[in-house]
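Dataset card, provenance and construction

Sequences and ligand SMILES were collected as paired inputs. For each pair, a complete structure of the chain with the small molecule in place was predicted and serialized as structure tokens. The example below shows a pair involving adenosine-5'-triphosphate. Curators did not alter the output after generation; any descriptive sentences attached to a record were derived from the structure itself.
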Amino acid sequence: MTRNVVEVAGLTKKYGKTEVLGGIDFAIQENTITGLLGRNGAGKTTIMSILSGQEPKTSGRLNVFGAEPFESAGVLSRLCFVRESQKYPEDFKASHVLKTAPWFFENWDAELAAELVEVFRLPVGTRIKKLSRGQLSAVAIIVGMASRAELTIFDEPYLGLDATARGLFYDYLLRDFMEHPRTVLMSTHLIDEVANLLEHVVVIDRGRKVLDTDVEAAREAAFTVAGPAQAIDDVVRGRSVLRTQALGGLASVTVDGAADEQIRAAAAARGLEIGPVGLQDLVSAYGLMDDPAAAALTHNLRPIHARQRREQQEEVTR
Ligand SMILES: Nc1ncnc2c1ncn2[C@@H]1O[C@H](COP(=O)(O)OP(=O)(O)OP(=O)(O)O)[C@@H](O)[C@H]1O
């Protein structure tokens, strides 16, 4: 039976009078990798800081390993929150971080840490404050990976890392996750890069949740139709179009829902191409919500949880 490691209900956060989280609900299942996605300032770091007990919430219910995390030593000993901007004592070197980490993480794997130091070519004898941005990210990734914490939270773990290093991180994360299953929550803007790692995504926009779906279900959540604009208009009429991109007489539209036989036949008859929508494009389509300039590009924008939509479809066919 799967259980939830994290449960959040009606979570709000205010800084002074400014509300940055406006009532968020979601759950994270044990031993899954979940992506927390959203545009700059959406509220991802705030959520992660609250989950890891570094910030108090303003209101709502929060349950991490069955307890409220803020100032709960029992919860904090089971999780690892890492980010490139982590603060360390003034004179600390990466070697000090790796030496002290086992004091905080009982599952610490020193061998894995040493291997990752080699992989990321991390100069462990250099003071932390002298490290490059990518090297700081490498420190955070090594701590996050080698801690083998039951819940590991990565806040944009790739900042400053080159493409090779990012690829290595994803490979190691997947391999280590298969061998030592645990729960991972990762915020990222590089959605396509991690799409194969993620089982679930929660998308936040301006402090509110706009999408909460299994990645598998998200693949069925929308499709594209590409070809001459006029023919596309005929084929998609009456359907919910999330996004339209047009160039000259050609267009590509993202349509909400799964591509059924009817639209496939209509598209084939007019020589139009039906294709899948990548997770990044899907999130971008939903991310346009409430943005007047971007919304002008769209018609009938209708963000719906994939599961909710499936339930609605099932209701119609019953
Ligand atoms: N200490 C603070 N005081 C006031 N406002 C804050 C504070 N921390 C964050 N905010 C505001 O809260 C909002 C959410 O910030 P947060 O860092 O959670 O966003 P994010 O989704 O992680 O963004 P990014 O992708 O750019 O890292 C932003 O508008 C930010 O300016």
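Derived descriptions for this record:
The CA atoms of residues 36 and 187 lie 5 Å apart.
The pocket of adenosine-5'-triphosphate is lined by residues 15, 20, 38, 40-46 (CB under 6 Å).
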